Amino acid sequence: MKKLLSLIFVVFLGVILVSCDKEKNPPQSNDPIDYVSQVQLTQSFVGKTFLADGIEEVTLHTAVDGDTLHVYNKNGDLLKLRFLGVNTPESTAQIEPWGKTAALFTKDLVEKSISIVIQSDGGAAVLDATGTRYLCWVWYKLNESSQYKLLNLELVQVGYSLNQSSGCVLYKETIHLAAIQAMNLKLGLRSDANDPNYYYGEATELTLRELRSNISTYLGKKVIFEAIVVRQDGTTYYLEDFDGETNMSYGIQVYLGFTTSSKLKVGNRVKISGNISIHLDNYQLVDIKDVIGSSAKDNLKVISTGNTVIPKEFEIADLADTSNTNIINTFAKVSDLTVKDVYTTKDKDSSSYGAISITCEANGHEIVIRTAVMYDLTNKYITSTSGLILESNFTDKKLDVVGVLEVYNGKYQIKLFSMEDVNFK
Description:
- By secondary structure, the protein is an alpha+beta fold.
- Helices cover 17% and strands 34% of the residues.
- The N and C termini lie far apart (120 Å).
């Protein structure tokens, strides 16, 4: 009898302990957790500025890629932002699987938002390692009845970004949990599926004329062609090829990002491969492969050197109509221009600080010449103490100019790279 009572007591005690354990550790649900809905913006941004206080409501300028935005603050200054806690695949100078998908996801949300708030990781704003972008958490609100959502966290939760929270303080733990869940659920880049916005095929070999004439159909795809380097602006290069059948030249912009190539020298004819991307309404070639010693079909190759490219002469009236898209990025010359207005970019945080916009007129038509950031160490021109070319060189002048045709705000403008491409009259 005592043994029976002891057995009953042990079983009863076991039931109590199991019951208590269930209270303490409830069964885990198989349903995904919406971490984004659990995190709220609690810091007030009213009357605050991002640079001084670490938080501010801003206005969108451009969604660059999955984890980079350009915005305007309350003073109208352009701020370049790099998201904290995340690292989306590349979609600009290099194109990686899920990079374009992440970029489109970010672009869609911020463009539909009625409010965007940026927040530092505590205290005043801090720049990233490049010294050009501010690190921030990005909050967005789609309508008046919704709460602000943390975009950084959402990118990780849906599987469009790896978490990079080692240097963060705010939201670090939640970012980590969302990353584990995305990995367990095999979402986005953590899955075995192909990215629907990434081109996995081989490069299409074609002429620059064929590419330029049908460029929208090659967006996101890999191409390979021959062309001559006509001008360079930092790590952006302009290539052109003459087509004898149409008696026209066709050009394209090539963006290398933070790398350079000794093969892309002005006058070199190259065989180049990359992906067609679009940035600020301009098509460009990105994701260039230049591996030393590689004989791969898509590796950058020099065909010949010392080639001379003669710019095509345009009347200013010819450039009033932008419907002829085949001349975009071609090497052009426009003569007998009268300078009407000059403006210099004065934002020292901008990569275009010191670039000059020159509004010119001829025969009742106007066109803008936009310079690269130009320096002169020959004492031939008016410069700042650092040798930066100043706008006073152009004020009230008449000139001929050689440059590359670009489209900005729906109008053609001429990109000027060197004072040697200007003939003052």
